[in-house]
Amino acid sequence: MNKDLEHKFLIAFEAHQNIVHKICTLYAKDRDSHHDLFQEISIQLWKAYPKFRGDSKFSTWMYRVAINTAITQYRKEKKRIDVHDIDHVLFKTSTYEAYDREEEEQLILMYAAIKSLNDIDKALIFLFLEDKNYEEISETLGITEVNARVKMNRIKKKLKKILKP
Amino acid sequence: MKELELLKKDWKAKESGFPKLNREALYALIWKRSSSIVKWLYYISIAEFVFWTALSILTRSTEQEEIIESMRLSTFITVLTVVNYSVLVYFIVLFYKNYKLVSYQSSVKELIQSILKVKKTVSQYVWFNLSMLGVATLGGLIGSILYGPESETILEMAHQRENPFIFWGIIGLVVLVVIALAIGLLLLFYRLLYGILLKKLKHNYKELIKLED
Questions:
Q1: Model confidence over A2-18: pLDDT tens digits?
Q2: For tag attachment on chain A, is the N or C end more exposed, with fewer CB atoms within 10 Å?
Q3: What is the C-alpha to C-alpha distance for residues A29 and A85, in angstroms, rounded to an integer?
Q4: Which of A21, A42, A106 sits opposite B29 (nearest CB)?
Q5: Is the pTM of this model over 0.80?
Q6: Domain limits of chain B?
Q7: CA–CA dist B97, B91 (Å, integer)
Q8: Quick check: A49 and A5 in contact, CB under 8 A?
Q9: How far B23 CA sits from the closest chain A CA (Å)?
C-alpha cells in the first residue's frame, strides 16, 4: 500500500472504528476475544483496502469486510468449546442508569437473546441496530431485499420467543 | 417490538464507550501476534532444556557409568556435556533477548528484521543440537566398537579378513547410517516442535512485508 492510500485508509478507519467495536460486542464471547477479533478485523480491512474501489460508501464496505471476518472467526471458534461470558454483553453497563428497572431487565434479556442468535442472524440484527434500511442491509450482506425482510421477520419472532417463552 | 427499539436506543448510547485506535495502535495490534509466537519459542526452548536434563539425570546409574568408563568415554562425555550445557544456556539467553526485542519494536521494518533474527536463532539452535547428537553418537559407537563388550570379537573378525579395509568400510557405513537415523529422528521432532510456530511466524512476516509495500 502506498503512503497516500495508507493515509486515506487510516483516516477513514479512525473515523469508523466504532463499527468494528460494535461487531466485536456481538460476536466475541469475552473481553479477550473482543480484542482478538478487533485485531483480526483491522488486519483484514487493511489487507482488503487496496481493492476497495469506492463504488460503495467506505462504511458499507467496512461493514461487509468486518461482518465477513467476524463470521469466519466465529465459525472457527465454534469448533472449540463455547462458553459465553454474559458480562461481556453488558459492556459499558453504566448506560443502564438512564433506564428504569423494567427497561434495564429488558435490555439485559435482549442482549443475551441476540447473543444466542446464529452468525448470520447476528449480522442482520447488527445492521438493523445500526439503523440501516433493507436496501443497505441487502447490499452489505449480499442477499436480496426480500430475503433480508423475511429473515428479519423470522429473527423478530425468534427474539419474541426467547423473551416470552 | 418495543424491546427492539429500546435496544436500538441503548446500542447508540454505547457509541462513546469504545477506545480509539490510531495508526501506531494498529501497528501494535499486528506485531503483538509475533511477540506471542516468539514468547512461545522461548518457553519451549526452556521446557526442552528441562526435559533433556531431567531425562539424563533420571536415567543416570552406576551401571551406565561403569560402561562409559570401560569404553574410555568418560572424558569425552564430560567435555561434551559441559560444551552442550553452556551453549544451550547461551541459546536460551538468545531466545529471551529475541522475545524482548520483538516485544519492544514499534516500527514494521524493525519487526521484520527481528523476525528474521528469530528464525536464524532457531535454525542455529536446531543445527547445534543435531551436530551434538551426531558427535555423541559417533563417539559412543567408536567407543563401543573399540572398547565395548563385543569389541574383541569385532577386532578378531577384522583381523581374520584378508582385506580388513572392506570390513572397516562396512562398519563405517553402519555407523553413518545409525548417525543419520538418530539425526533424522531428532530433526523430525524439531520440525513438529518448532515447525508450527515458525510457519505462523512466516505468515505474520509475509503480512508485515505486505504492510510495508
A1: 667 777 887 888 888 88
A2: C
A3: 6
A4: A42
A5: no
A6: 22-212
A7: 10
A8: yes
A9: 7
